[in-house]
Amino acid sequence: xxxxxxxxxxxxxxxxxxxxxxxxxxxxxxxxxxxxxxxxxxxxxxxxxxxxxxxxxxxxxxxxxxxxxxxxxxxxxxxxxxxxxxxxxxxxxxxxxxxxxxxxxxxxxxxxxxxxxxxxxxxxxxxxxxxxxxxxxxxxxxxxxxxxxxxxxxxxxxxxxxxxxxxxxxxxxxxxxxxxxxxxxxxxxxxxxxxxxxxxxxxxxxxxxxxxxxxxxxxxxxxxxxxxxxxxxxxxxxxxxxxxxxxxxxxxxxxxxxxxxxxxxxxxxxxxxxxxxxxxxxxxxxxxxxxxxxxxxxxxxxxxxxxxxxxxxxxxxxxxxxxxxxxxxxxxxxxxxxxxxxxxxxxxxxxxxxxxxxxxxxxxxxxxxxxxxxxxxxxxxxxxxxxxxxxxxxxxxxxxxxxxxxxxxxxxxxxxxxxxxxxxxxxxxxxxxxxxx
Length: 437
Prior knowledge:
The chain is an alpha+beta fold. The chain folds into two domains: 27-141, Rieske [2Fe-2S] iron-sulphur domain (Rieske Iron-sulfur Protein, 3-layer Sandwich); 149-425, Naphthalene 1,2-dioxygenase Alpha Subunit, Chain A, domain 1. It is built from eleven helices and 20 strands. The strands form four sheets. Strands 11, 12, 13, 14, 15, 16, 17 and 20 form an eight-stranded antiparallel beta sheet that branches. The chain has a six-stranded antiparallel beta sheet with strand order 1-10-9-4-3-2, with no helix packed on it. The protein has a four-stranded antiparallel beta sheet with strand order 5-6-7-8, with no helix packed on it. A hairpin with a 3-residue loop joins β14 and β15. The longest helix has 18 residues, at 371-388. The chain is globular.
């Protein structure tokens, strides 16, 4: 369990807070590209890390993200006119470009040079992988762009969306990296769409969790012995600082060994909107020549399907939510699945949000299968201390580009770290030190 001070330190993400300063050292997914569909389209509101901003695509197609408030009289630039490579405040006509420069000040005399002395806060952006990325940290410390594999595949091979979760970022992330809960929370009853893989896992013993620290975060595996001495089912993941998880999402059956298995990797990023709200990014992709189906791109049936599960017109909020008990069906809970809630990610949100807006971790009792959660908290607190001391946190480099999450059945006497090393890390020259954790 954490002390009250540690829990508060991890929860607070606003300007000047230790964890907030840590997050500001990374590029963050901020908007889906289609939210700013064309040049000079209407601006949109954006809130990240407790800061209110306005985003717009200028006449040249470049994206700007500015402080929400005009530095003149503090009117909201959301109401501004997006025109001729700048966003113009409708109150007195002051206009700002994507760099935050005041390029026009019609309310002042023509001979005045006042506009040259006024600048608004503007943040650096990048656009790739159908996502607009934002960097909010020191300009002298801009890291490489986070070009993870899912951002580099063709659009036909990728699905990406986001959903607002009304709770602190850490309990969402901790729910995602907790591999053991899937045996219970996401269990389906026999005869209701359960795969051979899921049936074998359900019959196996409780998972053993092993965590391997790396220079980008850690790699971890849930290891479940299969029935009848059939080896170990190993599901390998990556936690990438500060808020990413990669996990295998094989479609088909790894149990029967059919040849129609499509290798798919999926994952999430839990990006803090503020202390009490999180934008959860959901991505899935195929790393082979085989594209995703439209249903796979839309993440059909996951609880993260746009318009069916996510309402973009309502701030990307979940349609199934605490106000309607996530459409909990007790009859379904008795006969079809463990929760009575449809959609794996809806099930996740239900239990994570049930902990309260910010979970009181001083009351927890963690066990051996919580190693990944314990490791994450230690890493985040240590990384925040490093930034406070003027250093660079982990996970800023290009060593995250070629990571893959893999799940396989391995012989019982084979170490998963060795067996899956090349598939995990792709680059032959990447060799994390294998030390106990």
